[in-house]
Amino acid sequence: MSFSGKYQLESQENFEPFMKAIGLSDELIQKGKDIKSISEIQETGDHFKVTITTGSKVMANEFTIGQETELETMTGEKVKGVVVRDGGKLKVSLKGVESVTEMMDPNTIVNTMTVGGIVYKRISKRM
Question: Where do the Cytosolic fatty-acid binding proteins domain residues begin and end (predicted)?
């Protein structure tokens, strides 16, 4: 199943505890908790371009499966990582945060991020 498409955040679990754990300020957490971010994914073979727009903040990352690249994290920091494909899932570990993204069905994408036992789950629907 292709990840390509535009998705809007529908629901999320453990937003505040996760954001605190990765070091976001309370002010930014309060600003961001009710914003329905939009994710746009372009998949061409093993190359991906992912743009996430949350209010006025835009985070764009490009990567090729299995190749080290610099990725911007949710805190705005740029770190090196390798995205791997595991069956229908995309996985990456960045500074102690384990991220798994998968298509649940043709219109639903789920991203689960884990840090220190806190699991943050984002469910987005195709627009």
Answer: 5-22
- Write down all domains in the chain, each with its CATH number in brackets: 5-126 (2.40.128.20)
CA dihedral 38, 23, 70, 84 (to 10 degrees): -70
pLDDT tens sequence for the chain (127 residues):
799 999 999 999 999 999 999 998 898 888 888 888 999 999 999 999 999 998 888 999 999 999 999 999 888 889 999 999 999 999 999 989 999 999 999 999 999 999 999 999 999 999 9
Q: What does the alpha-carbon distance between residue 46 and residue 27 come to, in Å, rounded to a whole number?
A: 37
Q: What is the largest CA-CA distance in the chain?
A: 39
Dihedral sign computed on CA atoms, order 25, 14, 106, 1: positive
CB atoms within 10 A of CB 41: 19
C-alpha gyration radius of the chain: 14
Q: Name residue, tokens 């903040």.
A: 57
Size (the chain), residues: 127
